[in-house]
Amino acid sequence: MISSPMMRTTSTKTNRRNWDETFQAITEAIGRGFSAGINRIAAETEIPDPFRVLISTVISLRTKDDVTFAASQRLFNVAATPIEILDLDPSEIAGLIYPAGFYRNKSNQIRRIAEILLEDHGGAVPASLLELTALPGVGRKTANLVLSVGFGIDAICVDIHVHRISNRLGWVETTTPEQTEFALMEILPKRYWIPINEWLVGFGQQICTPRSPKCSICPLLGACPRTGVAHSR
Ligand code: SF4
What we know:
It is a single chain. By secondary structure, the chain is mainly alpha-helical. It contains twelve helices and no strands. It has helices at 12-30, 37-42, 50-60, 65-78, 82-86, 90-97, 103-121, 129-133, 140-151, 160-168, 177-187, 195-206. The structure holds iron/sulfur cluster (SF4). Residues 168-169, 207-208, 213-215, 218, 220-221, 224, 226, 229, 232 line the site of iron/sulfur cluster (SF4).
């Protein structure tokens, strides 16, 4: 039986081993070849391209992974740099990323981001949380994904899956994703900051789902307080 990393804290060594066991169980449960949306897009280029990660994360808002992946590919086949994006008018961008949610708003946002990158950053994506969150529509979640997946910088991207699962498992007791990010930074070994998002997205899509989590087949059941879970299968 796996011990929850929060049911610890007899020694640092024990904590480390429990995080390792927990994430090993999670990655085995979701399948070792699993790759979530933005990571799939980042894997399309030999070296992850922060601009593609940024733009595809904008496209991904309220949009399913497969739709995000296809929409991003269509856009990047035509325009994969800020200069190339500015050669397109918003309706062309909208047509390429359709049927992503809010595709018209996103097309304007993508164009504005490209403009700012060219005007203020020499056409490059800045590798700083402060500068990324100054871009239109870019919050901490997107900025941390760009830093972690695009640049390989240790950062925790807390989306709805990471926030929900971290609370259910009792790792944190928080009410907002931002609080979860700061709480995880206190307890999670840095080597897990980058991959935790992809793993918990997969775990949240397959097992610890928003409604009716599949606790009966979950490898963490014995160590999970199931905080906030009303019913389970
Ligand atoms: Fe989620 Fe249930 Fe597994 Fe806990 S036991 S992590 S609530 S699926």
